[in-house]
Write a structure and sequence with these properties.
The protein is of the alpha+beta class and about 725 residues long. The chain is about 60% helix and about 5% strand. The strands form 3 sheets. Strands 6, 7, 8, 9 and 10 form a 5-stranded antiparallel sheet that branches. Strands 2-3-1-4 form a 4-stranded antiparallel sheet, sandwiched between helices. Strands 5-11 form a two-stranded parallel ribbon. A hairpin with a 5-residue loop joins strand 8 and strand 9. About 50% of the residues are buried.
Length: about 725
């Protein structure tokens, strides 16, 4: 592989104009396709294989048109202290507000709370549901403005008026602020790392080109493939991350080869042949982690994973072709000012590698590997311990800031009607097989209504055929409480007896039941996902490093960092320790998809760091250095690059912690802490400590396995040759080359 990539880098350098024009043409073509593509239709969220989804599908089949995904706004009216909403003046104000709400051009219906029994027992609170003809994404700015104006007018009457529901959600999409912050921080880190504007700008430029191509490709394919807006989110984030990382690694190796006195073309070819091999295998591990999201069985995750995997592939191709082409245009610009001055003065002697922070840190660990290893493992283990208390769920309006009207509406409904009112269960009764469908549905309703933990059951609503009924069940506890989950399991557990008595079947659905089912499905899929992803990555690293223990050590270190970061998330967002520092106002269950997101994204980035760091150690070992010396060499050449890459990622993810949405905070905190722990504890402490303790055994491989495994020459052994000082060609000569 090294020889092939060497030739590729050399060709890209020589044919730089052709390479640059090809990538420019690709970017222009996908941009045109993306801008002219039909807008993708919004697909409803689907979760195959769970009861709540099957019940929802049955509702759509038996109640055609009734289960439309129209947006809703639940408007809550609370009377001033000591008054009731049923008082004449207050009632008049509520009715006027409902009339105004119903005047919207996209409004399908409103409900009079005084006729629909939507007034609390103490008379202090009432609510109405505004249903729209279109989904939340289809609401126009005029409709949203009309809703806000109606709420403000109602507040002028002296009532407390708040609103929740998907019609109140901001559908403006991502603002790009996090990406802008990430690029800005990356520029500063790269400038400090390289000491050159050109060296800092080149990885940013090529990464932006890669993200542009990936984003426009996803946009162009969104309509024919039915992709959602969320597909591009992960692609942008990881495309930017790996695009910067991979270009950074190539440029860093190029500067190193130039420091040895090699000519620009040769240095570029060697950089692509050696560092490019690490980029290829690092990219493959990321692709495995992202494509493996399809194992979970959630269509949205599958789309996001495959879209992001495509962005990573683009990033790898750009690092192997466009980056060396850019080095051909500006071969000296990426060097430090000191190097450029020396070359102008004709001094091109090979530089003697100097001890740096990386080699000094490696020396520290090598002198005391066991204490460093024990301290690192103990620290990560302590952080991971709270993971045993992990509770998964899907936080809703109760997790929003109290400054939002959605959260205040949630609290008002919970106070007026009970905590379970915000998360009613929906029961769908299939009475086709019953002798008397209405009597069967009534019996099911009575049995469920008598279950401990149920506050009330609504009258059953039948479809036109009269063979299917739907009714709501209000629990006594909040949607995210463990007692509510137990209630759902109890109702489902009592099903066989009720069905045998009535001859009708029933299923439980609704947002609360859906969230419970999703959490259980994700938990059950997490272990198979880990086995598939980690197993394939271990095999890949086995080929790369030709070692049994190094890949196993890499996988074990990754698991430690992920468990520790999940433990940190539980401590802050579930147990509430330090929550105030991050602006988290309400603690509760951890978002169901959080562990999968964390594993998929962090695994890819962690394997990047592993390949970048250990491949240089392997290269030094293959070229004759002793194991301890090889560890020092690897840190001397790669530690700065890994630290820079990790700092960029931590800054990008930390930008999300400032978001007002609790779930976004959670994702940002989890990813930032995982990268921090993996890069600085696992890769910088555990990896050298383990390799120091193992010594020669670290690179042991059974002879029979050595014969079976393909040889890919990641170390660039075939490219090894003495570096000879060369006369530096003038820039104008390079331009003609």
């Amino acid at each position: 592989m090294a020889a092939f990539l060497y030739r590729m880098g050399r060709l890209a350098f020589r044919r730089r104009w052709s390479v640059a024009l090809v990538w420019a043409a690709v970017l222009a073509a996908v941009a045109m396709a993306g801008m002219n593509a039909a807008e993708a239709e919004d697909e409803p969220f689907s979760m195959p294989g769970i009861e709540s989804q099957e019940a929802f599908d049955l509702m759509e089949e038996r109640f055609p048109g009734a289960a439309a995904d129209g947006a809703t706004a639940r408007v809550v009216f609370v009377a001033p202290d000591g008054q009731k909403v049923t008082a004449a003046e207050n009632k008049k104000a509520v009715e006027a507000a409902i009339a105004e709400l119903g005047d919207g051009t996209q409004v399908a219906s409103t409900v009079d709370p005084f006729k629909a029994d939507a007034v609390s027992d103490d008379g202090s609170t009432a609510y109405t549901t505004v249903t729209y003809k279109v989904d939340a994404a289809g609401l126009t700015d005029a409709s949203r403005a009309h809703l806000d104006e109606a709420l403000d007018n109602a507040r002028d009457s002296g009532l407390t008026v708040e609103a929740g529901g998907d019609a109140m959600e901001d559908m403006g999409g991502p603002s790009g602020t996090a990406e802008a912050i990430g690029i800005s921080v990356a520029a500063v880190v790269l400038l400090i790392t390289f000491g050159s504007l050109a060296a800092a700008g080149l990885p940013l430029l090529t990464a932006i080109v890669g993200v542009g191509i990936s984003l426009m490709t996803i946009t162009a394919l969104a309509s024919p493939l039915g992709l959602t807006d969320t597909t591009s989110t992960l692609a942008i984030m990881l495309g930017l991350a790996v695009g910067i990382d991979y270009a950074l690694f190539i440029v860093s190796r190029y500067r190193e080869e130039r420091g040895k006195g090699r000519a620009p073309q040769e240095a570029t070819a060697l950089a692509v042949g050696t560092a490019g091999s690490a980029v290829v295998f690092a990219g493959l591990t990321v692709v495995i982690a992202l494509a493996g999201l399809s194992v979970v069985g959630i269509p949205m995750l599958t789309e996001m994973g495959l879209g992001a995997a495509g962005a990573v592939v683009v990033g790898v191709l750009i690092a192997l072709t466009l980056v060396p082409a850019m080095l051909g245009f500006w071969p000296n610009a990426v060097l430090t000012r000191k190097d450029r001055k020396a070359r102008k003065a004709g001094r091109t002697e090979p530089e003697t590698p100097k001890r740096n922070g990386g080699s000094r840190w490696a020396g520290f660990v090598l002198r005391r590997p066991l204490p460093v290893l024990l301290a690192a493992v103990a620290g990560l283990g302590a952080l991971a311990l709270p993971m045993t208390d992990l509770q998964l769920g899907m936080p809703g309006d109760e997790a929003k800031s109290t400054e939002t009207t959605q959260r205040r509406a949630y609290d008002a409904l919970a106070e007026g009607f009970g905590p379970g009112f915000n998360g009613p269960l929906t029961v769908v009764v299939d009475a086709k097989g019953a002798d008397d469908p209405k009597a069967a549905a009534e019996t099911v309703s009575e049995e469920i209504g008598g279950t401990e933990g149920v506050v009330s059951v609504s009258p059953a609503q039948f479809n036109e055929a009269g063979d299917t009924a739907v009714f709501s069940v209000v629990p006594a506890t909040a949607p995210t409480d463990q007692e509510t989950k137990d209630l759902v399991n109890t109702i489902r557990g009592d099903r066989p007896g009720i069905e045998s008595e009535t001859g009708a079947t029933f299923e439980v659905t609704g947002t609360t039941a859906m969230n419970i089912d999703i959490a259980e499905k994700v938990q059950s899929a997490l272990v198979p996902y880990l086995l598939v992803v980690v197993g394939l990555a271990v095999i890949l690293l086995l080929v790369v490093f030709r070692s049994i223990l190094v890949p196993l050590k890499a996988a074990a270190g990754f698991l430690l960092s992920v468990l520790a970061s999940l433990g940190a998330v539980v401590v802050v967002f579930q147990q509430g320790h330090g929550a105030d520092l991050l602006g988290v106002e309400t603690t509760g269950p951890i978002m169901s998809l959080m562990p999968i997101f964390l594993v998929g994204i962090v695994f890819g980035l962690a394997m990047d760091y592993e390949v970048f760091l250990v491949s240089r150690m392997r290269e030094a070992y293959v070229h004759g250095e002793r194991p301890a010396q090889a560890v020092t060499s690897g840190f001397q050449h790669s530690a700065r690059v890994v630290v820079a890459a990790a700092l960029i990622m931590i800054a990008v993810f930390s930008g999300f912690i400032g978001d007002s949405d609790s779930m976004i905070k959670m994702i940002g905190f989890g990813l930032a802490s995982a990268v921090l722990l993996d890069a600085f504890v696992v890769r910088m402490a555990i990896v050298p400590a383990v390799l120091a303790l193992l010594g020669e055994r670290a690179w042991w491989l059974p002879k029979w396995l050595d014969r079976i495994l393909p040889r890919v020459d990641v170390e660039g052994e075939a490219l090894t040759r003495p570096a000879e000082p060369v006369e530096e060609p003038a820039e104008k000569d390079l331009a003609r080359a």
